[in-house]
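Escalation from tier 1.

The customer reports that the assembly of two entities below gives different structure tokens on two consecutive runs. Tier 1 could not reproduce it. I'm attaching the input and our single run for tier 2 to review.
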Amino acid sequence: MRVNRRRFLATGLATSLLAYGEHVMSDQKINIGLDPTDLTKQAIPTPALLVDLDAFESNVKTMAEHCRKSGRGFRPHAKTHKCPEIAKRQMAAGALGICAATVPEAEALVAAGITGVLLTSPIIETSKIARMIALIQQGKSVMLSVGHPREVELLAEAASTAGVDVDLLVDVDIGDRRTGILPGQPALELAQLIAKHKRLCVRGVQSYAGHASHVVGFEAREKTSREAMGKSVETRHLLNKAGFDAGILSGGSTGTYNIDSTIDGVTELQVGSYVFMDIDYRRIGGKTSGENYSDFQHSLTVLATVVNATHPDRVSVDAGTKALDTTTNWKPEAKGWPGLTYNRGGDEFGILTLEPGAKLPRIGDRIEFIVPHCDPNVNLYDRIYATRGDKVEAIWPIAARRG
Amino acid sequence: MRVNRRRFLATGLATSLLAYGEHVMSDQKINIGLDPTDLTKQAIPTPALLVDLDAFESNVKTMAEHCRKSGRGFRPHAKTHKCPEIAKRQMAAGALGICAATVPEAEALVAAGITGVLLTSPIIETSKIARMIALIQQGKSVMLSVGHPREVELLAEAASTAGVDVDLLVDVDIGDRRTGILPGQPALELAQLIAKHKRLCVRGVQSYAGHASHVVGFEAREKTSREAMGKSVETRHLLNKAGFDAGILSGGSTGTYNIDSTIDGVTELQVGSYVFMDIDYRRIGGKTSGENYSDFQHSLTVLATVVNATHPDRVSVDAGTKALDTTTNWKPEAKGWPGLTYNRGGDEFGILTLEPGAKLPRIGDRIEFIVPHCDPNVNLYDRIYATRGDKVEAIWPIAARRG
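Tier 1 run:
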């Protein structure tokens, strides 16, 4: 959503002290205490989540071009951004659709007009199955993944009751050990179970090799991903040999996009993090770029303010565990502040300490941090400030966070 | 907010498949895909945040009675729950007011009619200062804490421009090293700087001894907290000797409530976690209860569903790092499932593994987890299901999360 001067003025909430406004953002009112029409990065209330549009647009383009040149489709994963505005830009770049990890994500994407939504996670609650079926009843273009006979039974019952046809991918566990059925015969039997229900249709196979995506070193990663995805390719062949029309093999990640796109039988990539990048991905190393994986640029940061400078060896910023995800082993990095180390300072604060010779920020200084892991960090916020240089071009709701 | 059958029926969104409804919750629409009027715990969409009302009400009462008997006030901290409905219940139990860690928290509390709101964190952004001043201009009862001369300058300017009087506590750093000014002379000098501005008024002192709250073992904790709070008591005396009317010394935590309430000069407790409890607090040990701190009951859980059971040694639940905070060293505990261990399974999933002889849950089973650390876990959710036994009595918005 572009900020809108008329809407701001219409609220008439100026105080004697400051231009002070509310503007409606999607379905919620956001009060950032500032005129949103001329917002600069310097004035964004902290802690805040920022996306640098130049870097973001470059990432969107790079992945789209890679897939086009490789003759593969891509269905980027919204679990990374939970943001329909970003999904729209991925679709405009040529995506086949968008993946969702949760039913609320799928609903938010569909509500934003996204087609080709694929729910990649298993659902076993009847109310969630009903919500997905309701989307199909409304004529929306969605697919589901199944990895267990119980899911098939529940879906078949719901689809039959509602009188709708449901397209399914067989979720195959190729070593991730989190979701999906085992490859080969067990997957074929699940497909055969699906085929017994006339309202359900096998469209292909899905696999996520989470154990491959973050392997450090390109060669080691390539070996792991080829072994894993090979099981999925074989399973797809097995299904097709048995008479299924398994047209889709959806898989891959930001870490393996240029590996999986060379594997025969992989039809589309479920890449997510590439739009933002993070420290967790940077350290895996690139095909040609050495230790730092630099195929995509860091577009995502958390902006924080120095709010305490009592001690000579440290300052506090207003971004703690509620604002900066620290569930990985990596620390947030202060952009443009060499020699500063971010340390956890509880839920509300981060503590910045110094390497010898480094310069300590002053109270009121504003610091951008590159995040260790993009997905759970985005999940901490309800909106993302889309910036270009010093200008805030838009404020995008992270609409699929809720539900 | 109590769920309301009339409102549900008015939406008229029943589908052929399921009673399917939307109901308005605060300023946002929540679609949980179910009739919310007769909701049972069994039907809550997962992952979900739950508060057990019997345990919660017992905790609220226990703390209130302790403070009454000790002759101390209490101003519970909303950073724990970010939930105006909970704040209202703390006020009804006799709280002097409610503490807030952020400006959006303060705004949400004030909007809910809470009086005596104390912002315990430093703010240095002019837009945030303006938002707090705007609350005072509207006649709301709020106080701020300051720990640096720069905060005083900015507040003085804003208060003077707006023509309002602002009550302040001097935030004293008694060993936490995150916020506040050093005790003794530096704190006195800050008070004297405040006194130069006629719109600003020193009302007392605030301290948070975060380094004391989680000390394991009651005696060691008592020693740490007495040493720390002693500095704050001395500072308050120093201010009063210098002619200030420092009526308030606000501090303490759930871990030190029964220590700080015996220290002369401490006037009120800023307890937070006691309403929910968590594993991080349980392990600190109690005054009389041995290794497990059992003064307060575990009222907070995350409800999850088993969504994968492909392997004989593990199952996956639909609660990963986006749903269960794992930033502490402790693991979520599966209630009523002895011998199960929760392991991180990425952002979307948790992996439950088995101790020898333990029983693995089946697909579709629903499991409640006691959370390792309540504050950042609540921060992952927009609503909390308030349950009594198997019944959902209310759905409370975590309204102060946003902003």
